[in-house]
Amino acid sequence: MTELSITTMGAQGDGIAPLPEGGHAFVPYTLPGERVEAYLGTPRQGAVPGSALSILSASPERVPAPCVHFGRCGSCAVQHWADAPYAAWKRGRLVAALESAGFAAPLVHDLARTPPGARRRADLGLERLADGRVTIGFHTRGSHELIPLTECPVLQPALVALLPPLAETLRSLSALKRLGAVVVNMLDSGPDLLMRTDAPLTMPDRQRLAAFAATHRIPRIAWSTKGANEVAAQHEPVRHHLSGLAITPPAGAFLQASREGEAAIIAAVLAGLPAKLSKRARLLDLYAGIGTLSLPLAAHGVVQAYEGDGAAVTALAGAHPRVTATRRDLARQPLLPAELKSYAVVVLDPPFNGAPEQVAQIARGTVPHVIYVSCNPAALARDGATLRAAGFALREATPVDQFLWSPHLESVAVFAR
């Protein structure tokens, strides 16, 4: 056991303490200014993982966690931190990322907030216990152990209320032998489920799922097998509205985690468009998904959307006359400078690892405006540095807190040559 003084907060929400022999310890669930007694693990790549055994001197910023699962559930990292310093830390992560990309004194707006109980999407684990019962929940930090969710101040209450009857239904399914997962999206038409199990669905399984869907007004339950999704039970039509337009998302479709976060991202993207933009201007939306950004952009220009997932392209196709959706894997086949030159603005919302291949081509081209929607400050820093080296300046950036009390941060950065 070692006594440590926590000096700063790390990118993953761990308290960081300098070690007498050099290097740093990373201790979850601690705060800057605290002195703790900790157990230190084996160093990994210059960092020493720690575990706080007791708080010897607590920070005045420490508050009671609102969830009984905090400290075990791996979804939240900083429920024990007062709101003001927590928000400053999240905004500061975006500032630090842009500064590391070479943009001095970046203009970063205040943090756009998501309230508790607003998250509408969850990817949950399933586990059948020895007595046959089924556990549904998030994994513990750094392991495959599941925490059975009895409450969650982050998720929409309707999603939390669905879990006990879902667990009871899954108990009777022969398709779940040991482990599985379920993605739940709260669409306008109601909960939409995509299940992954470790055995095939039988006809009795499908009948039980259909009965569950009818009882709980779940329009669709889909099942993922061999990389493809099939409908296991359909009770009602599936619909969801993006910018006022109705679409039918594929099962397990990527949605922004909350309505509030989605609205903040859209507002920041539209605010980042050039002031003088013809309605005939050509706008490019890369990694477009089901059209979260394509559809609002269509009010400001003619939109070409590219997305690698075929089901998402199908959902977007035909949703708006000023949006054309095309399937393309932008990591393997990024748009080249000659393909980019006719566009006034490029908007991109890449996955967690960013878009180094596509940004390299943008940097080589002549596109004057780039709006980058990021879910990973480290990837934004890397790709932002590529844009800066190509002559882009940073106009403004907006941090968006969609994943409350977690280290995850969304942001919108506006670049112009």
TrEMBL record:
This is 23S rRNA (Uracil1939-C5)-methyltransferase. The keyword Secreted does not apply. Its EC number is 2.1.1.190. One of its GO terms (molecular function) is nucleic acid binding. S-adenosyl-L-methionine binds at Q256, Y287, E307, D349. Gene3D superfamilies: 2.40.50.1070, Nucleic acid-binding proteins, Vaccinia Virus protein VP39. Pfam families: tRNA_U5-meth_tr. GO terms for biological process: rRNA base methylation. It comes from Roseococcus suduntuyensis. The keyword Magnesium does not apply. PANTHER family: 23S RRNA (URACIL(1939)-C(5))-METHYLTRANSFERASE RLMD, RNA M5U METHYLTRANSFERASE.
